[in-house]
Automatic annotation (TrEMBL):
Residues 1-12 have a biased composition (Polar residues). This is ABC transporter ATP-binding protein. Keywords: ATP-binding, Nucleotide-binding, Transport. It comes from the Bacteria. CDD domains: ABC_MJ0796_LolCDE_FtsE. GO terms for molecular function: ATP binding. The keyword Manganese does not apply. Pfam families: ABC_tran. Residues 49-280 form the ABC transporter domain. It comes from Streptomyces cremeus.
Length: 285
């Protein structure tokens, strides 16, 4: 279980949040993907990421694996959604397709108003750099660069000027202000993953995708990262889609989607540890 003393308490945590610590950052948050504002009265939220009829086959011949077998889903803007399911159910394959890191054999992916399917490699790369953030289990930081340079690398590659006020908000929220000159090797695993989170958010992406971001972390560090991801949605207007098979990690999210054998096997609103365990048991995990 994540250590509740770190502020990493799922769902029930009503402690300090980024908004209260950093003033009116909500107003400074990026417009939600493809969004008309959500009207008062509970109309459906804008869709940040949509996938239709996704099919992906890994390998060929006798060893071919149908990792995605007709997946159609909408991920709402300004929400924290988790993708869950047994090992091998297609979670990473789906996330990579949603993020434009891999192509589908059939089906379509849309982020905001942009259809990824059919974009040229160059256009897709540009779109990813400008509009998408990633957090991976293995951090993927460059070891010879400082934390600050790692955080800003994507913006530099995209030829974009950093917004220093926003940089300060993100770095402050992640508690990294005193670590910016350190290289990854001089940081703990949790600090490295927080650098990776800052790198993902500093460009104000339409969506942040995370694949098992706490899989390499101890429970305390994992709780800090999950709390930050949740607060980035609640207080900064970020949209987050995270893969996990950890019910505690899933309980930080607003909603969950369950995969089994490359298909959608269920949905959960406001997942809790018991509801996730029950859903996973039903999916044969
Ligand atoms: N590059 C690949 N070549 C061949 N098969 C692959 C490849 N990548 C994934 N697969 C297979 O596709 C299926 C789905 O894999 P995927 O990595 O999406 O599962 P996952 O749900 O993320 O699992 P885990 O929880 O273990 O990370 C699995 O059967 C896997 O063995
Ligand atoms: Mg995976």
């Amino acid at each position: 279980m994540y250590d509740s003393t770190t502020g990493g308490t799922p769902r029930s945590d009503t402690g300090k949040d980024i908004g209260s610590r950093y003033g009116d950052v909500r107003g400074a948050a990026p417009a939600a993907a493809g969004s008309a504002a959500v009207p008062a009265g509970g109309a459906p939220r804008a869709v940040a990421v949509g996938v239709r009829d996704a099919v992906k086959v890994h390998g060929s011949g006798d060893t071919a694996v149908r990792a995605l077998d007709g997946v159609s889903l909408d991920f709402p803007a300004d929400r924290f959604t988790v993708i869950m399911g047994p090992s091998g159910s297609g979670k990473s394959t789906l996330l990579h397709a949603l993020a434009g890191l891999d192509t589908l054999d059939a089906g379509r992916v849309r982020i905001g108003s942009t259809e990824l399917t059919g974009l040229s490699d160059a256009a897709l790369t540009r779109f990813r750099r400008e509009r998408v953030g990633f957090v991976f289990q293995s951090f993927n930081l460059l070891p010879t660069m400082s934390a600050e340079d790692n955080i800003l690398l994507g913006l530099h590659l995209a030829g974009r000027r950093p917004d220093r006020d926003w940089f300060d908000v993100v770095v402050g929220a992640l508690g990294l202000a005193s670590r910016l000159r350190h290289r990854p090797g001089e940081l703990s695993g949790g600090q490295q993953q927080r650098v990776a989170c800052a790198r993902a958010l500093v460009g104000r992406p339409q969506v942040v995708f995370a694949d098992e971001p706490t899989g390499s972390l101890d429970s305390r560090s994992g709780g800090e990262v999950l709390t930050f991801l949740r607060d980035s949605v609640r207080d900064l207007g970020q949209t987050v889609v995270m893969v996990t098979h950890d019910p505690v990690a899933a309980s930080y999210a607003d909603a969950g989607v369950l995969l089994a054998d490359g298909r959608v096997a269920g949905r959960l609103e406001e997942p809790t540890v018991p509801s996730v365990l029950a859903a996973l048991a039903g999916a044969g995990a």
